[in-house]
Amino acid sequence: xxxxxxxxxxxxxxxxxxxxxxxxxxxxxxxxxxxxxxxxxxxxxxxxxxxxxxxxxxxxxxxxxxxxxxxxxxxxxxxxxxxxxxxxxx
Length: 90
Prior knowledge:
Blueprint: H1 6-27, H2 34-43, H3 60-88
Helix pairs in contact: 1-2, 1-3
């Protein structure tokens, strides 16, 4: 496995923390329908800063944000795959 940069590690950890907090909050009584959970998670891997192209060498903050969005996307894809697997065994 390739070595991860500090920004990649930090972004992934931030995404995992936010995902867990979001799921716990939604499941704790905030009208936790499955579509709402998916919509909330998917909104987090859409880049939304409206800035120009960051250039060839993005800043550390941009690299962390980018890693975080990738991690959200990976978490959603894994969760959807697991859910699909559970539905296929019913």
